[in-house]
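User: For documentation purposes, I need each entry recorded in a consistent format: the amino acid sequence on its own, followed directly by the corresponding structure tokens. There are two entries in this batch. Please keep commentary to a minimum and don't merge the entries.

Assistant: Recorded as requested. Entry 1:
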Amino acid sequence: MTLNKRWFAILFTVFAGCTPIQPDKQAPTASTTDAAPVEFALLSDRIYDVAADKRNIWVATDKGVNRYIKSEKRWMGYTVQDGLANNKVSSIAVEPEFTWFGTESGISKLKNSTGEWTTYNRDDGLPSNRITAIETDGHYVWFGTDKGLARYNKPIDIWALRTTDDGGLPSNHIIDIAIEDEYVWVATDMGVSRYDKKIDSWTQFTKSDGLADDKVTTIAIDEDYVWFGTTNFGVSLYSKTDQAFVKTLTRDDLLKTNKINRIVIDGLYVWIGTANEGVQRYIKSVDTWIHYSLVDGLSSANITSIVPDGAHVWCGAREDGVLRFDKINALWTTVRKAEGLINDNVKTIAHRDGIFWIGAAMGLSRFDSRSGEWKTFTKARGLITNYVTSVALTDDAVWVGAAKGLGRYRDDRWKFWRKRHGLAGDFVQAIAVVDEKGLGRHAKRIVLV
């Protein structure tokens, strides 16, 4: 936002309730011109899953969930303080009404329209609280766990379970789920199961049927084939026409490695995330493979998840954050956790002239991207409370919204306003700096909304 240097207004809202992370529209980028751009916004660099809908990119980490709002170009975060069952999130599935999160303590469901959270665990019908995979299918949501498979019927609120005791599954350790019109495919550590929706029957496939290996890590479905990635033996292709495995891809063919973590279909492309060789893209129309590695801008060679999103592809790295690939410009950008933060539960980020102000649940951090210096503010160092909800910058001050009022930091001094000073309430949810033209020379205004 471009500000008039003389006149401005501070516009903020006072709200009672929880506050989401509200980072600024941009984040710091690496100063080295030879390196790929880097942004700092994540709760953690350890990424387990990435999902996308029309408005958001969702990132599952070991310290909560990050959400990137595409239209606003800003990051938010959710932890157990906001409603997650557990901060270690393994999987995400999105649909118009709900977003589902698999955790170490069951399932968390976020109602997109209201922000209401619901938790499901073994007491509700899950075979285990450790969720390994989620996939939506109309009225149903399928959940993989380390002790079997669960299907939730949303309209009638009924759970159905399937384990090896019921037949159909080669193992109770579910790794991935993929769904097409007729079938539900389930990957395990001992082979694959296919559920026929029409006749309610299960079929198992193992190495003896043509799989490259029984330890299947990922499943993807296109118009002709079902693609299976394995832990150490490459990729198997199952022909829908022939109803059989017809091809295996390994390092002896065009793969850079046999260690496959994720396969995703993206129109004419097949994206493959590997455990040690970065990303490969297969262009089906011209039968061509492209390899992306560290020298191309990847922050890691161990890719755990991939999600196409229009002109971009988002990838999760095992220990190195999120990678965003611009298909048009062939440019990789890395989004990572900002080191030096007072707390991982980041609520807001604002920056100007290379200085980043990062508000968190335990205080405020200042990062100078030019020198790499960090400075921390807490209640012991001038804040009225450690819980910072929002930050906005003007030419001469830093404005901080908090759980106990509005603060201004100027000339190394803090000043705070609370309800008793005229605020509608103590809990300030957001601050926006607005260019107010025509207010008169030297005019300043604080507008309450």
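Entry 2:
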Amino acid sequence: MKTTPIHPFTRAQRRAAHAVDSRRPESSAALEPLWGAVVIRLATAGDRLSLDYLAQLDSAELPVGPILIGELRGRPAVAASLSDGRAIADPFLPTGDLLELVRLRARQLRATGSVPTGPASDPARASAPRVVTALSA
């Protein structure tokens, strides 16, 4: 079988393209700064699984009472109880500054009396959503 030789210019282009591709990050998330948009919000019952996961990462129990969540890149990175101030955080991220922001917001909410009360405001009491698979249906 006879192979057709590749033009030297084309060979150089291929090498250059491969070198650029090998330096390219795996995902676009690597291009985003670590401290992009920060969101601080009250947790809802829909956050139960995310909070459970965060507590497992931190090897801690889920805080009780109304919870403030600090999000980075749309994912919970810290959570703090408005009742007792206990907090959990992702140990794989530098979350100290974000936790301070969440605690500052908690102090502001307590000072104005805007802390929600009642069982509906406690995501720890909400039952985790049931995951239905094809086998369990």
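Summary note for entry 2:
The longest helix spans residues 96-112.
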